[in-house]
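Appendix B. Chain record.
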Amino acid sequence: MLYIETGLGYSNNSNEAYKIRSTVPSLIAEFTIPFSKDLSMIAGWEIDYANSLLTGLRREQYLNNDFYVQLDYTHGPWVLSFGDRFRINNFWNKFENNEDRSTWSYHRNENALHASIGYKHQRHFVQGTFSRSYFNPTIVDFLNINDENHNSFLTDFRTNLAWRAEARYNYQTSNFVLTGSLLHTWLTDMLLPNEYVTGLRTSATWNKGPLRLTVGANFFHRHINGTPNMESLYNNFYQLKLAPVWQIGKGFRLSSVLLYNSRQQYFYEIHPHLYASVKINKDLGKHVNIYADFHDIAGQPTGLTDDLLHSYKNRALTIGLTYYPFRK
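Structure tokens predicted for this chain:
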């Protein structure tokens, strides 16, 4: 079976430093191959391109190609899965000022792995997972902070691997889902000392008729190893989530997300922050969906790094279209 999805997103927003206009087209092509009633494979190609203009500053372009494969095996109550994702990244940057109109480019490859084993019993499902992922850098990560004009780039950026082990429990009925998980993440090969995060995550989703409501609470403990010049850092923080969805009718869907992050003490203070968004979708027949997403309504936290990058108080409206050629 072949599945193809194409999409196009556009955003236009500004802050106190500059205006940002971004165009993001994407394409996903995915094959599902059933070898037997117990064993199947998913293989796919995902490509996305982002072209962002920071007025008066620079033009950033990203081209990402992902090739992925996943094997799924189900036998009785047991569910096993193994997957691999290989990403090819290409970046381009062109300064827009009068002094320097040179173009900087960078190429890198990444690889992510995932394995899980689960057990089903009636409405209950227990699963253990282990994965390796990575931080996908942006052009800003390559800026040479020792250059006072911020017009030069580093020649390399560390992979910044993220390893995660997670135990998950799920309970489901026809109109209610309860999920809880205990996870431990360790970040290696960091520019800063290695970091460890242990978390407890819970969420519940209830739906009735045209309404669906999701609430969640996450609690985390962070530990950052010290260095000879820096003490180890310990920090506890939490997140609260509320996400209602309303199927209005005639192909319209209205949704919202409220996400509250508590204060954190990283290498600088991260203030408490409320993220808020409102999104409306409209189906045009069976194959086309258009949407408008007004996000970051509550603004961004004003920490030290945000001030330096002039990326705070950022609100944006994103308008997009998704085409599903094989939807029935």
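Further analysis of this model is presented in Appendix C.
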